[in-house]
Amino acid sequence: MDYALQQLLNALAFGAEYSLVALGLAVVFSIMGLVNFAHGEIIGVSAYSVFLAAALGLTSPIVAVLLAIAAAALAAIAFERVAFRPVRYAPTTTGLLTAFGVSIVVQNLFMLLISPKPQSVSILNGLNQMWFFGPFAVSSLQVMELVVSGLTILALVLFLNRSTLGLAIRAASRDFATVRLMGIRANRVIATAFAISGALAGIAAVFIIARRGSVSPDLGFSLVLKAFVACVIGGFGSLPGAAVGGMLLGFIEVGLLVALPQEYGGFKDALTYVIIVALLVYRPEGLLGQRVELGDKEI
Amino acid sequence: MLSVEAVSKTFGGVRALRSASLSCEAGEILGLIGPNGAGKSTLVNAISGVLKPDTGSVGLAGKEITGHGPEHCARAGVARTFQTIRLFRDLTVRQNVEVAHITCRAVRPDVAARIGVDRLLAQYQLDGFADVPAGTLSYGSQRRLEIARALALGPSLLLLDEPAAGLNEDESETLAVAIEGIRRDVGCATIVIDHDLRFINRLCDRLCVMDQGQVIASGQTEEVWRDPRVIEVYVGQSETS
User: Fold this and answer.
1) A292 in helix, strand or coil?
2) Residue pairs between chains A and B whose CB atoms are closer than 8 Å
3) How far is the C-alpha of B44 from the C-alpha of B58, rounded, in Å?
4) Cβ of B74 and A182 within 8 Å?
5) Does the reported pTM lie above 0.90?
């Protein structure tokens, strides 16, 4: 029972983290049609900001958390302004290549300016403790991941549904050209989307630093690949889809770890993708994506 | 109100607009007609900031808006509808109108207070569907919603691109009455593009006829229909078709 509960918590915590990062990708994609593979480097900027602040004498974990989120939001806005705005109306492949370019450049900057090796960051270690509830021991970090991710997603939903800017973002995600003809400022909507995306990455960075206790140049890259998969599972561009896809990915991964005999544990990733491919054969548009009406071309 | 001076636009080797000029005053309904490919929609795109003209100028209420981009033109007072309906289909009817009203509240707060989202919905018989997704409305209701959304901008210039397309005779008549209501209540300049000449003749104060990217005639409706170039374009067309 204890083991099952622990694995359930693992799945929920992993899923929550994937959902946060996937939502960041989906917010930008839904408006710009851009798969921002530099999203991982936004996590990286956030993590290295905490590392540098700690190296300069910062000791407050609360300030470190706020710094991580603010740095990520600002980095996302800066990436948009410097790299993505000039290619906003270019073909989608140009945006994709730009995102990879930004990702590689920023990773190399981390290596050149700081170090190619992982650097220890202990300021957030206090978030990762064991909490005991009678016979059960749970990781405080996993509980926080779950609760904070849930609250963050709730806040995002409220912002999108209750605020004027949220309405403009939702409309822009449906038809960006028409929204501009309604007088909604494109730059403002896109910058807000990137800021939201960055803030989500910053929250994810806090959890990553707290779990790993270190930062490295490729910190966010593999997580973004997972988030990309989560978006595909959920239906690319769908915000609820990203959240559901992330959670499902967490459950698939942890479920396979539990189910597979130890000697076959190395097949976890391969089997994860087999399950995802099977899912996409059944629902090519993803779980919550909308089927594109092809009319005669369906024949 | 609107002043379009010698606007030209080329796409590759195709000259879509050739020094096209027109004007439209506040409270006036101008019909913009011509055969397919005449350049009507390109001209509307140039006026609404979707396209940047190669040469020429577009001015609204004495202010230059040439090539300023769609959001700037909308904020300056240009509102439009589309040949193919472009609603935010899975947003509600009310939210569709609210998106445009955001801009109106920001740049023309006095107008925004006067028109109001609820009032527009009621005026266009959409109040009963306010909370349903726009994509579920009937075709005629979607056309009305597009106009209501355009009016939520509090425009000084309204561009209606084939508003009667796909409507039956009764629906066209209802639409014509609604557009006359806009002239009476809002007083904005209105340009209507349509192929339904009966609808255009019944509605418009003046006509502007385009062919091959040029304005070939403009003036009072009866006067324009007597113009030999207009007769050649329309009668010649019907003879060959």
Assistant:
1) coil
2) 62
3) 11
4) yes
5) no
